[in-house]
From TrEMBL:
Family: Belongs to the methyltransferase superfamily. LCMT family.
Origin superkingdom: Eukaryota
Record's catalysed reaction(s): 7-[(3S)-(3-amino-3-methoxycarbonyl)propyl]wyosine(37) in tRNA(Phe) + S-adenosyl-L-methionine + CO2 = wybutosine(37) in tRNA(Phe) + S-adenosyl-L-homocysteine + 2 H(+); 7-[(3S)-3-amino-3-carboxypropyl]wyosine(37) in tRNA(Phe) + S-adenosyl-L-methionine = 7-[(3S)-(3-amino-3-methoxycarbonyl)propyl]wyosine(37) in tRNA(Phe) + S-adenosyl-L-homocysteine
Entry protein name: tRNA wybutosine-synthesizing protein 4
One Gene Ontology term from the biological process aspect of the record: wybutosine biosynthetic process
GO molecular-function terms, A-Z: tRNA methyltransferase activity
Record's keyword terms, sorted: Methyltransferase, S-adenosyl-L-methionine, Transferase, tRNA processing
Annotated pathway: tRNA modification; wybutosine-tRNA(Phe) biosynthesis
Coiled-coil parts of chain: none
Gene3D superfamilies for this protein: Kelch-type beta propeller, Vaccinia Virus protein VP39
Gene: Lcmt2
Record-listed E.C. numbers: 2.1.1.290, 2.3.1.231
Amino acid sequence: VGSGSAVSLSRQVQGTGGSSAVSKCSAAARGYIQDRFLRLLAGRRRRRAPLIHRGYYIRARAVYHCVQDFLLKTQSQPRTQILSLGAGFDSLYFRLKDVGLLHHTVIYEVDFPNVARQKAVLIKRTEELSALVGDSGGEGLGAIVFSGEDYKLLGADLSELSELERALEKAGLDNEIPTLFIAEVVLTYMENTRSDALIQWAAEHFPRACFLLYEQVHPGDPFGRVMQQHFSQLNSALRSLAQYPDCEAQQRRFLGKGWSECSVMDMNEFFTCCIPEDEQQRVQTLEPFDEYEEWHLKCSHYFVLAASKGMEPSWTPLLPSVTVPHHAGPVGMAGSVPAAVCARLSGIPGLRRYGHHSVLVKPNVILTTGGFGEEDGQHCRMRNFHVLSKHAGYWKAVCVTQNIPDKRWGERLYHTVSCLSDTLALVVGGRTSPSSAGLGMLWLKFPKTCNASDPDHIAVELVSLQPAAEAAALRWRHSVTETTFKGEQYLFVYGGRSALQPVLGDWYFLHTRELS
């Protein structure tokens, strides 16, 4: 790589640290993270989406969980140290100092010289930060840009191992005392040969050491491909994923580079097993949230790894602290239904969506409504209806644009559609945003000839509900089942959630003719 390209690349990677600080600051402002120092270090303020808040919450929680465990396990030691690699504008030192956990621990932070100098200026200018650090006058010695009695901030390139080693030695890093290395979405930006060398160097040069790694996994599925594309567009490619695509590969990586113990969890497992239930419930109450599919998908693509060697007692921060219920016996399976990808349909626009509802309106004709997906090259809530019909063994598809006078139809997710006759369907519930009330009911009326070859107009009419029936409709993520009782047609509406209740346990029999 030419020197100009290398400088450009380092600037892009530095930019990810600033963006991360802003996101953590936004999460702290909403109460996810208890950290009054983030706002002093983040610089600019920007409100992030609830899904982003949860991502940074689980990341911060995992790192702090492991760091706290290291400090508790080594509290009988006369001296310990923490080396944060690619620390950026992280506030870890200030949080630990503020709560009195650094009685005998020195924290070393390393990042690109430009980033380290910016952070040093921030600390000096901010009395609340500089008062905590104090000043031992060590800055200017080698790579040190700011120095306190228990805090050393260094500017160095992590990919230049010999340079890094000399800088740390001059700064006073002690190979003989218990040491925790932290790499929070850092090593993945480096060439694998260089990041592997750093992992091995840490194991070989520190007899009593722990390594905490937080990174991405699973590059091969659709979410993983989009994730890689996102970072590539930022000129910050995730380089470790090709060689270490999953948690098992990362575990083998560390065990093969000199670490004697290594445990790893993806963030779904960490959230379930290592975060107490009362804390999980606290997070649920912070702001309206309903993006559980994306949340679980994102958590499955990040992991936390804890490796150690020479530690007595053993450092095992990723042991489950929450009892997860298990089935007493083997789980019975009701059977399976064979399925195959409809290859001819994979490229049809309008089908890539979720949170939608598809219904068979007549033999070989499927109507799909709502959801979130791709429309006109954009990711958005879907406004148009989608009709699929089968003729002579082949599927045809078309999007039906609707001019709906009432906005209460548009763009709804997690609703149900029940076909009551060959010309009539009833839409129940659904939502736009998680903070909005449920969307009530709609009639969908279509002619008997409705198909994808000739998609006749589908009429949408708002249902005027009786007050007693409103509670049945103002919900989403519910289920609706068609049933008959004494010759009358009913819909059994059950469960789901609302803007006020995260889980609904009530149910209704909705009389379809009278909507009572």
